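Human: We require from you a protein record containing the residue sequence and its fold in token form, and nothing else.

Assistant:
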Amino acid sequence: MNADQTKTLLTRLGIEAANPGACARDWLATAGEEIASINPATGGVLGRVRQCGVAEYERVVEESGEVWTRWRMLPAPRRGEIVRLIGAELRGAKENLGALVTLEMGKIFAEGKGEVQEMIDIADFAVGLS
């Protein structure tokens, strides 16, 4: 994949040059040290992730606990439907996400798509359990 194709892919996936590294209900404006994602084939930087600090971490933990409290009260079929929708989103983005795995991990494209397929398979399995 050349530089223009890489930039187009990252844009389609909403990946910026620098990205927040913590999400509560929304992405947090993290300001910590940046970690670079390197393409092992070229050594080029694909993007950076800003780490969160203690305060942001505590917010993520607190809000995840609140969401878990609501999530556990949903009937299993409703939770299964949400997981099914997540799997559908992964299916729709499989080509783009597979290409991203290829860039980040140095795998061939078929293996990158296979990694995404594993996530889809786990979602399908979880739906079956609900």
